[in-house]
Amino acid sequence: MADLLENPVNEHHGPPRAKIQIVPLKGLPFAAAALVLVSVAIATNWTWLLMFSHVAGGGLWTAIDLFVGLVIGPILGRLSIPARAEFSAKFMPAMVIIMPTLVTMNLGSGFQLARKLGNLNAASPNHGWVIASMIVVGIMATIALGILEPANIAVLFEMNKPVPNGERIGRLMKRFIYTAGITGVMQLATLVFMTRIATQ
Amino acid sequence: MSAATSPTSAPAPTGDRRFPPVAWMTTGALAVVVIGGILMASYAPRKAPLGVAGGLLGLAVLLLLAVVVTFARLRDFAWPTFAKVFKWALLAYVIEAAMIEFSFVRNHTSGASLQIVTGMLVVFAVSVPTTIAFTVARYAD
Questions:
Q1: What ipTM score was computed for the predicted complex, to two decimals?
Q2: Number of folded domains that form chain A
Q3: What is the rounded radius of gyration, in angstroms, for the C-alpha atoms of chain B?
Q4: Per the CB 3.0–4.6 Å rule, which of A13, A14, A69, B90 could disulfide with B129?
């Protein structure tokens, strides 16, 4: 009985869990370098650098969204709870750095590029496609910033507690996976719009 | 006190306490400024209809003010956790908003258009950290 009181059943046993670093500090120099690159591209108005930032940021954003939403998400849903927790503890902090950086690279340079190439002019044959892509990106950004990212960070904080609430983590992870799936599918529309713009 | 803001509301089936819809209001403010931003960007380099854009900005500000009022009425909330998350998220989103502002300024946006874009970016830079910090703090034990 005394032993039971000293070791409540819901307490974590075994070796102490390592604290999760919610924002991986070693990733920050890479994020800063990417933001400097976009700033230089915008300041110099250099078409190649703007195109590079836009395509590199957008390509990776689209690929990661599709891969997480349509491949990783369903696999994660079928894993055991401990496996899911271990994967998430490594995966989610990386996403905290990677995704906002890619989105900033893509959108910051994309607006400047659209303006420079004349795609924002109402007379441009690409005008409608650019506006359509802005609408899709706007919806994706609202979902990602309003639902997906808060759920991602809340999961990491929950996992850092001495006794994490598994049910709560499951609920927040479900939200993360569903919204990643929705934005992944919407990325398909972005692929259509961007390839139309590039070939008009 | 309304049920929506009552700190003693019945707990959700999962055992979590019910909270006012702060995250919905901040995400609503974000959605409104995203619509306004698309409107402004779609007219560049021409002048966007500033009345509509200004109206959207006003709506977003009203939503954020409603959040402030809701916070003032909130009791037994993990404010230290909220503050810790909010300040770091704010730093990140201020940098992001500054990048977008730089892009608009670089593209010769000026006058009332720039003021509205700046207002929208302020809403963006405040609403996202509030959503993140509130979502984390509501689950803090």
A1: 0.82
A2: 1
A3: 17
A4: B90
